[in-house]
Every structure is written in C-alpha cells, then in structure tokens.
Sequence to fold (53 residues):
Amino acid sequence: MTKWRCMACGYIYDPEVGDPDGGIEAGTLFEDIPGDWVCPLCGVSKDMFEEVE
Fold:
C-alpha cells in the first residue's frame, strides 16, 4: 500500500495503520479518505499530501 507524506509537517499516512484518532480505519486507502480529513499533526488538507515512493 502506498504511503503519503504531508508536505507541511512530514506526517506519514500509512494505510495499514489508518488514522484511528481521526476516524480512519486501518486498511483505508488514501484515495478513500473523506475530502474533509486533515493532517492529524498540523491540520492541512488532503491536497497537501504527496505519495512516498
């Protein structure tokens, strides 16, 4: 599964872990996260994330 990095603070969204505190279950692909989700560390929107290769 592809991980995604917040370009503002460096937080890594790992689909295998999800964001339990933000209501995102483990196994949720980044593309399937609701559009109003924000980075749990700095609060920027989803469009501020980039794929990590």
